[in-house]
Amino acid sequence: xxxxxxxxxxxxxxxxxxxxxxxxxxxxxxxxxxxxxxxxxxxxxxxxxxxxxxxxxxxxxxxxxxxxxxxxxxxxxxxxxxxxxxxxxxxxxxxxxxxxxxxxxxxxxxxxxxxxxxxxxxxxxxxxxxxxxxxxxxxxxxxxxxxxxxxxxxxxxxxxxxxxxxxxxxxxxxxxxxxxxxxxxxxxxxxxxxxxxxxxxxxxxxxxxxxxxxxxxxxxxxxxxxxxxxxxxxxxxxxxxxxxxxxxxxxxxxxxxxxxxxxxxxxxxxxxxxxxxxxxxxxxxxxxxxxxxxxxxxxxxxxxxxxxxxxxxxxxxxxxxxxxxxxxxxxxxxxxxxxxxxxxxxxxxx
Length: 350
Prior knowledge:
single chain, elongated, 13% helix, five-stranded antiparallel β-sheet, 45% strand, seven-stranded mixed β-sheet, mainly beta
């Protein structure tokens, strides 16, 4: 195995030396994982209802657990911080990760939930709209009824307050376009049973942008990859990025760091890693390793190779070399071509 590896690297080195010689809104966005904080937009907020007599809550999100077939009760509070009454549409829905970047998001009202959002029952009054007085609050009780066939693991959704007022109206031809703002509180619900954390690193790719003249300025690269939660529990991944050049020379070494995102079960997210000083002439193997602090045994790694070559300079060198070889060949042919005897003028005898 070592012999094959050395032979491959020697071949790569020879190829590079030869080239040197010739010389790339889904729903409601909520904050990523971090310190507990109520979901609010400066005008209104949604959070778990505080205990009786308490002005604030010590819960930023809803966290519950219940076996299949059980029912759990709780209450959400909508707080109006503005100087005027506000009217909301209250609904429950599922959570997802945005495909690019992995931000936590709750599905919009027009998208029907399929998981925990369907387990939540709100009061009949929320079937219409709910008005919260200026500088006031409205407590909205709800229940979560776990289906008998609910699968074990984490099910994530939220309670959303969608403002009915249309803001930022703009006229586009004969159509007026506006935006309705919404705020939601996350709800994490765990169904007991076999818990199987799963995390996979997939589709590692590298795109490069190199200067026209090599080494005049730094080459830039972007490492892209996908993280997929293939388990049934929430994972907060940490990622290590490294790269090796020829003969194992380390050209990139970024230690493990928390991504500050909550990767939900079954979700896939696309992420990128900028590389501002990428190699300009090397054969590079880039490796992405992922794990999770709360799951020490969880580990996945994937890699990709790319050849860093200053192609414009190499192309110019190849062109010049080709011209030089053509001129040399032409000269050699001329030298080898035998000279034909010149005809002598014929003088007629008198």
